[in-house]
Design a protein that fits this description.
Number of strands: 11
CATH topology of the largest domain: Nucleotidyltransferase, domain 5
CATH architecture of the largest domain: 2-Layer Sandwich
Shape: globular
Distance between the termini: 47 Å
Strand content: 25-35%
Number of helices: 8
Largest sheet: 6 strands, mixed
């Protein structure tokens, strides 16, 4: 009789009837496999007969290096170090670093899809930041949003600043949340936000705009405009807000700055610029979700 594995190990085979089930006792130890850094534990599922390793289904699968090294490469990329510098520091080839970062971006995308579901929107702020591809030959926009109460970044989208992309972005935000309550949504004066939010949320939200008048690259006046909802609903939402008593977009603006600082492709004065939209999209998701604690008791989720 084979010794049973610990309860946290589950069968990764999607066709197995015991897939994803804990404490079922169907996973047993199945020896070791040799890797470059030593050996790796292997398991076998008694239900489907498939064998797998501890790294199966993770970015570390078939990795011929230590897992700590992979994590260090991802952390250096998050801090703004380009691929060539990472390859020199770690003694790796440029193609290896690029492949590892693609795996890290895919893991972050899968984590977002699995865990960012069913949260409640209380006070949502939406905005987009501008960048370019191929040495200013093509403009690109990164749509981002933040739920002020929980500091959650529910969705992101990289693309042109069109009605179609704006609708896709707002739809992603709505799909990641459950329909409950009347959220306060604050945006800037971008003309496509109003029709898309009306189409996706209908009258189940309060939509307000913060319009800034800029003269000679300086903000000379800031005005507000209620687009969807009534005045008393807006007053109630601002009274229940824990962070501000008047309409603003300061939280999403600060998030945009964090995104720029965390991605070398988005910095204004940088020799590193993305050549393809896919690269920019992967970079915006490369920092894996981290649950941090701020001075308040609410968890803060970052998906940069």
């Amino acid at each position: 009789m084979r010794k049973a594995a610990r309860a946290s190990v589950v069968c990764p085979n999607g066709e197995c009837e015991q897939h994803g089930r804990h404490d079922s006792g169907n996973v047993v130890l199945h020896g070791f496999s040799k890797v470059k850094g030593g050996r790796c534990r292997r398991y076998r599922c008694t239900a489907c007969g498939k064998t797998f390793g501890i790294r199966t289904g993770t970015p570390y699968q078939r990795l011929q290096h230590a897992m700590v090294r992979f994590d260090r490469v991802a952390a250096l990329s998050v801090e703004g170090v380009n691929k060539s510098a990472i390859a020199r520091l770690e003694g790796l080839s440029w193609n290896t670093v690029a492949r590892w970062l693609e795996l890290a971006a895919a893991l972050a995308r899968r984590f977002n899809t699995k865990h960012l579901r069913g949260h409640e929107l209380v006070e949502l702020q939406l905005d987009e930041l501008n960048t370019f591809l191929q040495s200013r030959k093509q403009q690109a926009w990164v749509f981002a949003g933040i739920d002020v109460w929980s500091r959650l970044w529910p969705a992101t989208l990289v693309g042109s600043r069109t009605y179609r992309n704006t609708r896709r972005f707002v739809r992603r935000v709505a799909d990641a949340s459950h329909s409950g309550g009347t959220p306060l949504i604050t945006t800037d004066g971008f003309r496509f936000y109003t029709p898309t939010i009306r189409r996706v949320f209908g009258f189940g939200c309060v939509l307000a705009q913060v319009i800034k008048k800029i003269r000679r690259n300086r903000v000379v006046r800031v005005g507000t405009k209620l687009v969807v909802g009534s005045e008393w609903r807006l007053a109630d939402a601002l009274a229940e807000s824990e962070d501000s008593t008047k309409l603003n977009t300061s939280f999403i603006e600060r998030l945009n700055l964090t995104i720029r600082q965390g991605c070398a492709y988005l910095r204004r004065r940088s020799p590193c610029h993305a050549r393809k939209k896919r690269t920019l999209d992967g970079c915006s998701r490369r920092r894996l979700l981290r649950i941090e604690r701020n001075p308040s008791p609410r968890p803060v989720l970052h998906a940069i």
